[in-house]
Amino acid sequence: HYPVRVVTEKLLAPLLKELGDRWANNKGSIAEEHFFGFYLRNKLGARFHHRPQTQTGPRLMLACLPGDLHEIGLLLFALEACDHGFQTVLLGANMPLDELPAAVNKTKSAALVLSGVIEPKPGVIEEQLPWLVGQLSVPVFFGGGIAAGHFDSLKKSGVHMIGKDIDTGIKQIAKTLGFRQ
Q1: Calculated CA dihedral for residues 44, 47, 53, 58, nearest 10 degrees
Q2: Pick the residue with more confidence: 9 or 137?
Q3: Measured between alpha carbons, how far is 73 from 41 in angstroms, rounded to an integer?
Q4: 3-state SS of the chain?
Q5: Which member of 60, 150, 158, 164 has the greatest number of CB atoms within 10 A?
Q6: Per-residue pLDDT averaged across 122-133, rounded?
Q7: Do residues 111 and 86 touch, judged by C-beta distance below 8 A?
Q8: In the predicted structure, residue 19 carries a pLDDT above the cut 80
């Protein structure tokens, strides 16, 4: 019943931080993380599936980096983008970058949004990402927890950095695309 932004700020962000701290301090388990992740993916996925189809803004394609299975942030981003009038095509976790140019073209997406939460395999950011940017005629945006640690390589690749804050990222995308919300 609450807007995604409120749920994220007041409930999910503190809960995800607590789970991460528990796991880092060996007080939590992988089973605990998987249980919560599965539950949350189902709840957010249902909300995404049943959202009103009234968005008329630019279409955004959203995907996680190859090997990244943490799609909760991407789901939250997709829901918030919809609330701001964007149309979204959500591909989810572990997306091979070489398949994205065809998908972006087929869906007539105005931009590609990539998420990175866990450290990718060598070559993904330094080689595959610049290749991807060169293949597309639309802007590529990058957000997520690993962005700060790869700042120079990401900037060199040609992506637009949007950080970890969902609302700020959506505003940056809207400004870049010239979309008035």
Answers
A1: -20
A2: 137
A3: 10
A4: CCCHHHHHHHHHHHHHHHHHHHHHCCCCCHHHHHHHHHHHHHHHHHHHHCCCCCCCCCEEEEEECCCCCCCHHHHHHHHHHHHCCCEEEEEECCCCHHHHHHHHHHHCCCEEEEECCCCCCCCHHHHHHHHHHHHCCCCEEEECCCCHHHHHHHHHHCCEEEECCHHHHHHHHHHHHCCCC
A5: 60
A6: 96
A7: no
A8: no
